[in-house]
Amino acid sequence: MTRPLILMTDPKWFDVAYEINPWMRPGVWRADAARHLRAARTAFDALVAALKTASAAVEVIDGAQGLPDMVFAANAAVVLDRRVLVGRFRPTERRGEEALYLTAFKALKKRGLVGEVAQIAPGLFQEGAGDAIWDARRGHFWTGFGQRSDRAASDAIAAFFGREVVPLELASPRFYHLDTCFCPLSGGEVLYYPPAFTPDALTEIRARVPASQLIEASDADAAGLCVNAVSIGETVIMARPPARLRRALEARGYRVAAVDLSPFILAGGAAFCLTLRLDHASPPALAETAAA
Ligand code: ARG
User: Fold this and answer.
1) 36 is catalytic
2) Which residue segment(s) compose the domain that 158 sits in?
3) pLDDT tens digits, residue range 108-165?
4) Which of 140, 226, 273, 280 is flagged as catalytic?
5) Strand runs (DSSP E) across 120-273, as ranges?
């Protein structure tokens, strides 16, 4: 495995200042903002440490005043084969992030960490890897639509990357990004929360992932945003899980690295949301393999 490379955004300007998803608690935040911000810094540092322990390299860019959700780097772009497709936010509150992430990716390109940088066509909403998850085992994207990202954005992703995309319709505002309810693990299992999906989406998931590889998250797992996890090798990094979920993952040979991410859960985000993998690479196409 090549070393995972992860982009994160410094939490200096993190805040829960508005409500664009049902998790967000601006009142709770405001009641003790200084303490929550300190806790967010501690949580962020603990997540960085857990990622590094799991062998990842972490690049941290600056956030910006007035863009409190910019800390959720997963939403900025979809990245595969060093090509970056910057998204477009549905909530007006987050649109200011697009230009800043474009600038940041161009700076990463200058340093050779990514290649081409483009933005998805105007008129499409697409919230980055939060709604476009690369399944390294299966060699395709799973995309979420129906809450924040548009269905048509899936076609744009397929066209840009030249890879298969499997769109899944999200049924609940509480699970507004695919990464809140769906997590492919490095060994091929998929941790998912069935109530977050439409019947068609569930049919699609179950057609593509054998039952033996499907791990159902409970209501408590989903409520703790534990499905919003980062899978690196045998390590799964997630917000503090209920014991049953930890045991289920350990029984399959994973090591669970639990991080207290409660300040970010007040904004509706956890481990996966705070990270953006820059190193995902697609396998060589079957034709190329045959020719080689
Ligand atoms: N408050 C942020 C929003 O609603 C949270 C984003 C969490 N990110 C994620 N990939 N689920 O946009």
Assistant:
1) no
2) 5-291
3) 999 999 999 999 999 999 999 999 999 999 999 999 999 999 999 999 999 999 999 9
4) 273
5) 132-135, 140-145, 165-169, 182-184, 190-192, 214-216, 230-232, 235-239, 255-259
* Ligand 1 atom with least separation from CA of 131: 10
Residues 6+ apart with CB under 8 A from 236: 185, 229, 230, 249, 254, 255, 256, 257
140 classed as catalytic:
no
Q: 149: which DSSP letter?
A: S
Rounded alpha-carbon distances, angstroms, from residue 55 to 52, 271, 278: 5, 16, 14
CATH classification at residue 224? 3.75.10.10
Distance (Å, rounded) from C-alpha 78 to C-alpha 91?
A: 18
Report field, pTM of the whole predicted structure over 0.90:
yes
Q: What does the DSSP 8-state code read for residue 153?
A: H
Domain count, the chain: 1
Diameter of the chain measured on Cα atoms? 63
For residue 135, the one-letter residue type is D
Each residue's pLDDT tens digit, 67-106: 999 999 999 999 999 999 999 999 999 999 999 999 999 9
65: left (phi over 0), alpha (psi -120 to 50) or beta: beta
